[in-house]
Amino acid sequence: ANGAELVEEVNAEGNASASNFVVFNNTLYFTANGDNRTGIDLFSFDGASVDLIELYPDQFSGLFNPLVAYDNIYYVGFDSNFTPNRLISFNGTAGGEVLGSGVESVIGGNFIDFDGGLLLYMESDNIDVGAELYFYNIDSGEFSLIKDIDQGTGGSSISQFTKLNNEIYFEAESDLWKTDGTENGTVIVQTVIDAG
Fold first, then answer.
1. What is the mean pLDDT of residues 157-175?
2. Which residues, 6 or more positions from 114, have their beta carbon under 8 angstroms from its beta carbon?
3. How far apart are CA 152 and CA 124, in angstroms?
4. Which of 16, 39, 81, 181 is deepest in the core (most CB within 10 A)?
5. Comparing C-alpha atoms, which of 89, 117, 91, 92 is closest to residue 101?
6. pTM of the entire structure?
7. For the segment 179-188, what is each residue's pLDDT rounded down to a tens digit?
8. CA dihedral in degrees (158, 162, 167, 172; nearest 10)?
């Protein structure tokens, strides 16, 4: 009614729960529960038809939180070994774990494009550091710790990445922080409790 119409029924037997909509190279991409899978997968709509994109032949991808950057769509989802919270890229044709993947567990899908790479709130294979602020270098495939905000094995509870000028602002441990991508340039802006 009123101009709304069903484009295509992605799941005839249940709720497709379509979400994570993003436009990339004039194509709409989204995630949904399709007919032939038991979990969330990637779909495309080119204006004519909806197609399932199988990143992995034997499992669903569980992708969420899309980010278009550097000629790719980046997601958090399962890798080909069905390990959750991995950084996944898709270039419009093919996709899967990013170069260097296997050490990261991106927490809550928190990441943003910055300075030729991605800033992420993640855990790594470093047992001396909890979930913290990392940089992913797209060219080298390396994940590097920017700053251990909550010293030791505790996590810094980072969320709400936002760009302003040449810095990224974010919440960590209930306070306002900013980073220029360096350890020394990652500083608390304001303790929220002290701000009144």
1. 95
2. 135, 163, 168, 181
3. 13
4. 16
5. 89
6. 0.90
7. 999 999 999 9
8. -20
